[in-house]
Amino acid sequence: MIPRYSRKEMADIWEPANRFHIWFLIEAHACDALADLGVIPKEAAKAVWAGGDKPYTDERIAKIDEIERVTKHDVIAFLTELAEHIGPDSRFVHQGMTSSDVLDTCLAVQMTQAADILLADLDRVLAALKKRAIETKEAICIGRSHGIHAEPTTFGVKLAGHYAAFKRNRDRLLAARADIATCAISGAVGTFANIDPRVEEHVAAKLGLTPEPMSTQVIPRDRHAAFFATLAVIAGSIENLAIEIRHLQRTELREAEEYFSPGQKGSSAMPHKRNPVLTENMTGLARMIRAYALPALENVALWHERDISHSSVERMIGPDATVTLDFALNRLAGVVENLVVYPENMLANLNSLGGLHNSQRVLLQLTQAGMSREDAYKAVQRNAMESWKTGKSFQNLLKADEEVARHLQDDAIDALFDLGYHVKHVDTILDRVFAEDA
Amino acid sequence: MIPRYSRKEMADIWEPANRFHIWFLIEAHACDALADLGVIPKEAAKAVWAGGDKPYTDERIAKIDEIERVTKHDVIAFLTELAEHIGPDSRFVHQGMTSSDVLDTCLAVQMTQAADILLADLDRVLAALKKRAIETKEAICIGRSHGIHAEPTTFGVKLAGHYAAFKRNRDRLLAARADIATCAISGAVGTFANIDPRVEEHVAAKLGLTPEPMSTQVIPRDRHAAFFATLAVIAGSIENLAIEIRHLQRTELREAEEYFSPGQKGSSAMPHKRNPVLTENMTGLARMIRAYALPALENVALWHERDISHSSVERMIGPDATVTLDFALNRLAGVVENLVVYPENMLANLNSLGGLHNSQRVLLQLTQAGMSREDAYKAVQRNAMESWKTGKSFQNLLKADEEVARHLQDDAIDALFDLGYHVKHVDTILDRVFAEDA
Amino acid sequence: MIPRYSRKEMADIWEPANRFHIWFLIEAHACDALADLGVIPKEAAKAVWAGGDKPYTDERIAKIDEIERVTKHDVIAFLTELAEHIGPDSRFVHQGMTSSDVLDTCLAVQMTQAADILLADLDRVLAALKKRAIETKEAICIGRSHGIHAEPTTFGVKLAGHYAAFKRNRDRLLAARADIATCAISGAVGTFANIDPRVEEHVAAKLGLTPEPMSTQVIPRDRHAAFFATLAVIAGSIENLAIEIRHLQRTELREAEEYFSPGQKGSSAMPHKRNPVLTENMTGLARMIRAYALPALENVALWHERDISHSSVERMIGPDATVTLDFALNRLAGVVENLVVYPENMLANLNSLGGLHNSQRVLLQLTQAGMSREDAYKAVQRNAMESWKTGKSFQNLLKADEEVARHLQDDAIDALFDLGYHVKHVDTILDRVFAEDA
Amino acid sequence: MIPRYSRKEMADIWEPANRFHIWFLIEAHACDALADLGVIPKEAAKAVWAGGDKPYTDERIAKIDEIERVTKHDVIAFLTELAEHIGPDSRFVHQGMTSSDVLDTCLAVQMTQAADILLADLDRVLAALKKRAIETKEAICIGRSHGIHAEPTTFGVKLAGHYAAFKRNRDRLLAARADIATCAISGAVGTFANIDPRVEEHVAAKLGLTPEPMSTQVIPRDRHAAFFATLAVIAGSIENLAIEIRHLQRTELREAEEYFSPGQKGSSAMPHKRNPVLTENMTGLARMIRAYALPALENVALWHERDISHSSVERMIGPDATVTLDFALNRLAGVVENLVVYPENMLANLNSLGGLHNSQRVLLQLTQAGMSREDAYKAVQRNAMESWKTGKSFQNLLKADEEVARHLQDDAIDALFDLGYHVKHVDTILDRVFAEDA
Question: Which of A34, B92, C329, C367 has the smallest C-beta neighbourhood within 10 Å, fewest atoms?
Fold first, then answer.
């Protein structure tokens, strides 16, 4: 995570102000539950809220840091500073809890906050893709397999495919969010020896989490692994669309282009030098987000009830993965929203091979008109080769071929070059993709 | 995937006999749909089933291989061989379809078959963990954080935690299975130009798949990425439990051991040399399964409507990841089912520090008995240190400490060393973990 | 590793026949050393060679497998079968050694054998690149940054760049080979308690290895990690060249193409449908080779003197990574050797923008002719824009521009469109790249 | 990279002040070369040094940022600010160069600076390991395979093994440093069309780099991949030693411990609760450093002469990987330097099985005394089992065994329990490991 690739809203989740505020909420809600259970006085719980429920200013954070330099323990430093605001009742705070109860539950809250932003990001990407897909659903272009012209499709269909992928990613992220949205307040090794399980239930409910069925001082890390693995899958889809756009913007294709603002200079005097730098950038960011999933997967196998090897990893990938993905998704949404599409170039590219993409269709029709498959194949290939080598119109060559003419008249041949044939199911496809949105 | 780490049932999914049989089913069901639509004669569809629905013997497979060496195209070789069994009606087979329609839909079927075996594997692991957890729920042992004694827990609680993780993994795998269970019969670039979408719907229904809302010759690879990423998460949980057992089997702990058959020799004359080789082996296998997720994540970003870079990857990780995970899960289930548990060693280890794990509890009680937290801390630490250095009983030292004695009488101290305190919520925890199973 | 992507020579390294033969060599050389040291009779050492030095036939291997099924120990099974060939003196074999001495040293031999094949593969790739680079060093083509036309280069220069990368990879592989070429015969925890260090020295010398300075039953795994990481770097270079070719073969570029044999059919009736399937395939294989490095990196951190978690990993990635890389390098060499190059298409693509790639050069010349940089920039961009939008010749537009004409005459402008300017240092570059080969 | 895990010296390399200063050096040295070649006036080159060679203060950096917000181009912003300090001669700066010439060469300088710090870090680790290895070379402890007691070794031998690994890592890093220490000043696509190759040679020499034989606007990324892969291998060795220490600090072993400062509190009142948090932390950091190698490996395959997908990756992993590794190595050195070693616990653990680790040796001696291997094995196992189950002394049991007594007298048995047997080659091993240091 570096400022260049960060958005403030997401970065703020990982700032001390937010973290300490969440810590406070955990402690204060726990006090309420402890008070209800008669473990601490009800007045104490009230005092905690009254004294402590205020923003963590830079001044307060500096104070906590100062204390931590002495105690070398972050939660103790936090509690010490908090005590100054609460007064004597502060001794009832944190009763029966361990630091991990606070830290792990806080991480769960931060990750759900991050997930919520990412879900909104995905919604922005989805909205952009849908809008542009519908706009361009009739923009016919050549479909390419292996980078080679295959058969026609439309630009809208391309975008609809990416929409469907991001829709799946949204579902996956929702599942991953649920996976990490648990609360653990269970004590030193998760046995609730020193704290009633009902405290955990109360705090969980207040923070929008579910109680962790079985924690061992820490929330089990397969949850986090599944979360970061999901971000990696989403990164793959970003890369997929980014590479599509990078390809289409190549000088020789120029079927679509990242938007250039009027004042923006290309990298030189050459006006064609509009580089797809945003999608190239996302390609790199996708690599990073994928990489962050690995240490998360290795974090699962902690020793016994816990070791702390996961902590340094999460201090890094927690912010890094979510901030980078948030940035990439927003950049992607912007690229899609403003993408400049060139339908005329699409058609020019499609036609550059003289209608050769209809060769299979001609072959099929010849067979149905009575030729054997072998003869039909030879006739089609003979004319296709000629067209390919000389640049002559495939359509005209077919008409001039005696053997073909015996089976298909000119108008029948012309009918085989109708682009509508290829795109007749565009609405079917878009209906399927957008079906659930209705 | 190597024979040493393979189980036949899973390996067979990736054998030619199964693959060709699935190809046949796809083609035959497609013929039914085409016949219903009037595209091909109903008699032809019947002829396909009548002639072709029989096992792919080694002889048939050898024949297909022989043809492929000439045509250099696997699907054509398959169709040529099939034609011999069907007769003239074979020309109606594969009408309007592309090879990828067959290949990708077949892969989806193979992956769902693999997922079903893995789900059964997880069920076996879950059953073993639950059984052993309930059996050992009262086997008190020391919980360890950072490898250091913390507070007591029970062996059953440990196992319940792993049960919960594998339960989550089961849910994740179910989602991943749904993700890859789609059928694509949509033609060269997914536009249905040459085939009616209803064919895809019919084949999907017959094969237990859902129609892929938007394919582009290929089924989008974010689905496969999510699948293999899920296997990687499961591998993490295997490693987690494997490492727990490896730790417990260490010479100095010996709280649990992989089962050794009566005739089995250790690696030497030393009877203690019972190495946790199965769980060590699983640790390595987990690394492999994690690694296989990476190329699957990189496969998402195919060029345009498709390139074929994913194919070599999937030919390798398809079998490798599922066979290895299947093997590891079964090995794990066996280890858990037969795990030898030593409750007496657990107690001995727990007591080896003379009850020091109760120091926090003593501290808490002294505070409630009126000591300031600072004084209580000093008193506890003074005696804990003495016990730690000299090996004397912490419990006895406390009784002999004058300051402590002023606040707590001997029987009050003894009460603080009751193990029941730590395990009073064991049933609560197990109930939470096993709740949904009822 | 699957047969489809395997070459026999490399795959054979990992077959039992080679493994058992290496085991025999280790044991027999060790006997020689033990005999020299007077630990065992000289006659015994001779008997070992006399009886045991013969190929491991399928029959012998089956016998060993049969014994292993009973003893469940591979080295013991091997020694038992060997004893039948040696007679009573066989009891002197393996004295003071541990199984790992044999297994780890054998792996070292196998990896050096694999490395030698890979070095030969790299030589084939290098030879092909050099030959084609020199052949095509004057084939001018447009250089592309961001997929967008930049300035001219030549195809030979492109290939020379890849040559340089593979030359570096050769050096890296040599270093990695040296890293894993060590021999360990040091006993149960590497202390030589039961075997004289001179045995290790002798065996190492005979097998072309160096004695491992410090083994702990096993050879330290950072060596293997460095080896597999190096294979991953080489895979990156394969992918880099593969992607270059895939790009150049795109329908719109067609500057180079994988060779198609005369009889080879494209995937359809369309003759342009020559897909870069070999380089796409290599792209996928590169992903796999990269992935195999990961578990090798995780293998470094074994527990204490050793655990066996690395073993399952190496049984898989040992063959998988080397066989796959060997296959990919040979496929790559073949693609380069037979690559069809289209210099006329290169020129056509280069000129498709009407010489716009000289805009910077024109700008520079106008400045030197006295215009301010700002004015020169405006003049160039004005004409470049016009050319870009209308397709008119940039060169002619400049001549017709009054402001430009005031500073540059027609022949001066023409001189700026000389392609020679861009390629004047081609020989300098090739000399640098091929310098060390002389 | 987060402040918590950063050391200033390494972090500063990646700060703007250092980057801009390197940019200046590249430009100024290039001016010298251009002046020597007569391309620009000699006075101009002097003016560049005279005006520009001063530190990049926060003020200057803020100015550059301000300009970049307008121009959206970092190198142009840099040049504009620089011009203010140089005056009119500034127009001669950057002649014929591209931004990448500056950026990529700067990255090479930064990476060599980082490598030099890492080499010094490794030297610190090596010095600490060697010192402690020699100190503890006679501290006998049990060697453990699979976590199970095997045969005796010494703590110094353990450390010597890690020393050897870090020595290899030093060699690997030196090679990796050489790999990335190249300079590219070759223009838009690396053809030197607008700049003489001698400029590159001059700048390279001045900056301690070698000229890149073949750049394509960018320095080829296999170099960077090899560099980051090497850091990943080093991380593996860190993890390996970290895990050894974590194991030895376990409550049940306590053979070594991270140093606790006198004032430092454990996490509770329990004095044994000294957690190996530093080595656990390094375990996590190692995971991160490994992960950073992946995107570096994916960066190799840029499109054609370059795309910019590598840039975002390197902006992140450049600092992240080097800063994290620097931090981890220094933390590791500190841990080793101050490691508390408990030889008495080592002996106690070694003896806890009553000398069973000598069973193989007894077996061997019985054979040499005339027993058949089968009978000897049975005799040894009988007594070993008894010792293992009852805790009785293995040594005494052997003496009391009639069959054993027939072959070995009491003093012969006692001789087999001499620890010196196992450690007689300790100096041999240390000599081998430290040989090259002489």
Answer: C367
